[in-house]
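Notes from the 1:1 (GR / supervisor)

We went over the backlog. Supervisor wanted to see one worked example end to end before approving the batch request, so GR pasted a single chain during the call. The sequence is below; no edits were made to it. Supervisor asked that the structure be written out right there so they could see what the output format looks like.
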Amino acid sequence: MSKTLASQIDVDVSPARVWGVLTDLGAYPEWNPFIVRAEGRIEVGSRLSLRMQPVGARAVSLRPTVLEAVEGGHLRWRGQLWMRGIFDAEHDFRVEALDEGRSRLTQNERFTGLLAPVMARSLDRHTLPAFQAMNAALKLRAEQTVTTPS
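Structure output shown during the call:
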């Protein structure tokens, strides 16, 4: 059995600007309420170091591997809790162009493994709201950065 979470938001800036905010891992502590710390390189095969804070739950540290990194449009990584097959997660971010220089950020995550059915309700209650909070914070940061005078 698997469990998938998905959340999206439209942003009033270009896909390149959204991608820039999404891939600036070092700046995550400044704005990201879900992935509160992130280190590593956004390139296929790299391991990231992430500290994730679900809403109303304990933070967890993960070291996922980047599976796909398409400049300006797609970032995907896979991580696991303890060992493969127990509780695995594949996280996917997509940035797509909309009309009038706007974009849409979609993030989804597919959870599999022995604990996926047991964790399903907790994921809905704690992780999905964290996705939504991250999307809203990314929108705010991307739009503020563009409209704030230097």
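Supervisor's comment: The chain is about 30% helix and 35% strand.
Batch request approved.
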